[in-house]
Amino acid sequence: MEKLKIRANGALNGEITISGAKNAALPLLCASLLTRETLHLTNVPMLRDVKTTQKLLQGMGARVLTDNVHEFEINCSNINHTCAPYDLVKTMRASILVLGPTLAHFGEAQVSLPGGCAIGSRPVDQHLKGLEAMGADISIEHGYVKVRAQQLQGAHIVMDMVTVTGTENLLMAATLANGTTILENAAIEPEVTDLADCLVKMGANIQGIGTPTLTIQGVDKLHGCSHSVVPDRIEAGTFLCAVAMTGGKVVLKKAAPKTMQAVLEKLSEAGAIIEVGDDWIAIDMHQRPKAVDVRTLPYPAFPTDMQAQFMVMNAIATGSSKVVETIFENRFMHVPELNRMGAQISAEGNTAIIQGVEQLSGTTVMATDLRASASLVLAGLVASGETTIERIYHLDRGYENIEQKLGDVGAIIERVHDH
Ligand code: UD1
Question: Distance between CA 268 and CA 245 in Å, rounded?
């Protein structure tokens, strides 16, 4: 088992290059199922979830023609298996993203039901409701959802809540449906927009990209294209929180500040001086952060994937704050671990009240989800003594070379192997 060992080392200074977004790369890889031609993706982050998606697609018969650092060429002309098995789905719930494109292109698909996960029950009813409206037969057998449709038909679908992967699944399915599909209350996260942009390059006819109403005119077939994955706004936001906590001046390169307005405003409110260009963000911090209230909501409001990182920043801030999580139930697993490090956080239901303290103290901690683990890394950067983070495979699902990127700007952070 690998661990991270971290020691506080004062302010962070320098430059960090931001990777492509995990949450864009995963649906983009799955979009390769929609065409017999080759999809060429660049700026792909080298992450465990990307590897899992690659494995999933290869298990279905996809050929990965190029697998360079940050670059994939993937061809799905030989798909001979339309099933996503439990052993992969249980490690990555985003596996559900093969459902829509596989059904649309091959007339059937089976995906193991994801089941519960650490941050809540995360059902897929909206994905299924939409596919059913498009004419799919759906059955649940032996823990698998099976969908079948000779030819999907366009439909008018109003989603009950904003769901990111739900929107992506239905959007992909609709590109090859017969007739027009209108998706209302669609997610407008930048990763959904990135997928839509790539689908258009592949020949899809989509109107309303970037708005909550997507109108998709189905086409007979899609073709290959080349596409660069959007920058990861959550990775960028995590490093900005790190600097807001340690102090210092760091420039993030290859970032997408336009997709991060809510987070950047909160960091300014916390006392950070933020400057942005088209593809860079500079943060300059010379004081203890001020506590800021946060409420998670769908894009463009404050993202749930930044909640844990702001919680830990608030934990060492001046003043007290309230963090409300409205997207996922049970997304406060970092709270008991941060409290073990000396934070003063009390959580009840979906609300946490944080009383800032001057100093956290290092110990051995672990977390059961990706962003919770990231918050523990941030805590380690300012805690006294040594912080050891266990179960870092969660971090490796979503952060590319986190120890190297933080090490490059002055953090003392080391990956160690247990024997
Ligand atoms: C995606 C992101 C994840 C992020 C989340 C919210 C990916 C791979 N993951 O997850 O990092 O935290 O968006 O921004 O892009 N829901 C239902 N029924 C459904 C679908 C969703 O009730 O059929 C509920 C969920 O339980 C949750 C809410 O809707 O409460 C939003 O979930 P959703 O946007 O679907 O999250 P994911 O797409 O799984």
Answer: 13
CA of 162 to the centre of ligand 1 (A): 8
How far apart CA 219 and CA 264 sit, in angstroms, is: 39
Q: Which of 78, 86, 8 is nearest to 38 (CA)?
A: 78
User: Quick check: 244 and 313 in contact, CB under 8 A?
Assistant: yes
pLDDT at 117: 53
Q: Looking at the DSSP assignment, which residues form a beta bridge with residue 354?
A: 321, 345
Q: Looking at the DSSP assignment, which residues form a beta bridge with residue 294? A: 323
Q: What is the pLDDT of residues 49-63, one digit of tens each?
A: 999 999 999 999 999
- The β-bridge partners of 41 are 72, 227
Q: Is ligand 1 within 6 A of the CB of residue 23? A: yes
> Is residue 129 within 6 Å of ligand 1 at its C-beta?
no
Q: What are the angstrom distances between the C-alpha of 63 and each of 60, 67, 384?
A: 9, 10, 49
CB atoms within 10 A of CB 382: 24
State mean pLDDT over 102-107: 98
C-alpha triplet 50, 215, 76: angle, nearest 5°: 35
| Residue appearing with tokens 């099976």 | 146
